[in-house]
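Structure ticket #2291
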Amino acid sequence: MGIEELLNEKGYEAIIGLEIHTELQTRSKMFCGCRADVFGLPPNSAVCPVCLGLPGTLPVPNRTAVEWTIKIALALNCEINRFSQFHRKNYFYPDMPKNYQISQYDYPLGVNGYLEIETSKGLRRIRIHRVHLEEDTGKLVHVGKTGRISEADYSLVDFNRAGVPLVEIVTEADIRSPEEARVFMQTLRAVLLALEVSDCNMEEGSLRCDANVSIRPAGSKEFGTKTEIKNLNSFRALEKGLEYEIRRQLELVLNGEKVVQETRHWDDANKRTVTLRTKEEAHDYRYFPEPDMVPLEISDELIEKIRRELPELPREKKDRFIKEYGIKEKDAGILVQDREMAEFFEKAASRSKNPQMIANLILSDLLYYLNESGTWFSDTKITPEHLIEIADLVESGIISTKIAREIFGEMFKSGKMPSEIVKERGLEQISDGALIAEVIKQVIAENPQAVADYRSGKKQAVGFLVGQVMKKTQGKANPRLVTEKIAEFLDNPR
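Resolution: structure written out below.
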């Protein structure tokens, strides 16, 4: 039984809020000149006295990071605070060189926004509580069999990531199912990619998500005891982690036990959440204004300039693709989830006679080979011209859809144009009516039972006969022509 059906049956509902962090892909870090693209670099090779928090150093805010955060907030329909301020968030952890994090507290850059998502139950509006800017922390490397802190022999710290601009997006507790949480994250990622402010790579940690979840009797206004889930580093992990945790909480409540407020770790290998920290209490981070930086004053002119520069966002692009190219709504929704994929589609569809076929080729064939090879649109030998040509070959009847799929792998590997491959391998579709008629006569003679079935009213028998013709012609016969001529032969025996 699905988690939503189970909750409905037991008379409960889930209450979910998300805290999302995304690293900005600026050239330099938030408060110093060190490079910000640090993933994969040798440990502690992209650091300086400022991001290491050495005595006597002063932070200087990254203007681009501030403007990009405003851009994100505007794209999420937020109000922009004209007065904004950085604060010191004081706590101790080994990956924080200063023992405090420069963040924003009561004056974030964006507040009171929303993001609309499309779920299986229709359009949902999820409110955004705040969008604020801070610096990322370093990274602990736990050396041991599993890489987890509880089983580590010792830990090492890499400060490369310390100081990278980090935007935190906090939702209200408006999400009601694991599916909605996954769709929200996918929709938000598409927005961030469209804005070109982050690469949103969850595996590399540039897009991270924590989930707060509780359950309560349906219709109740009081929140239940929540738990926080960490280590949700994929859309699937987010959905499965929430499903498991909701089931766990529901089982406790139905058995008369209490849910303990705690932080839990999603164990992806065993598909379960496990306790990370218990006895959770409200932290006193002793926030106070950052004394080494003056507050930010955001002018109306800057806000309007950034608003004018906002690109077409995924939902707008989806609606335009459906209207302009006549493609299926579901296909348009998938295409706009990635900026590169959407651009690739539009370059091909705008010059093709059959945009829906272009969408089909991308979503069924090209994505398969890209995922299999671990590459993406900017790295492949396939160009929009390849798809335009292969769609034209199918549209004009020179090759069948089956042949198009057969040559796609070779086209992806070699980069050859489809017409070149078709010519080299002699794969032109047979559209000669007389030749096809001869093959049909053979097939009808060899399959008297199928003919009898058809004439007794079992019209599906024609599909079997078409398949036999395609088999004899090695898939080269024009299937539309074959179907027409078989029907002629069967309805008008000679």
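Closing remark: DSSP finds 16 helices and 16 strands in the chain.
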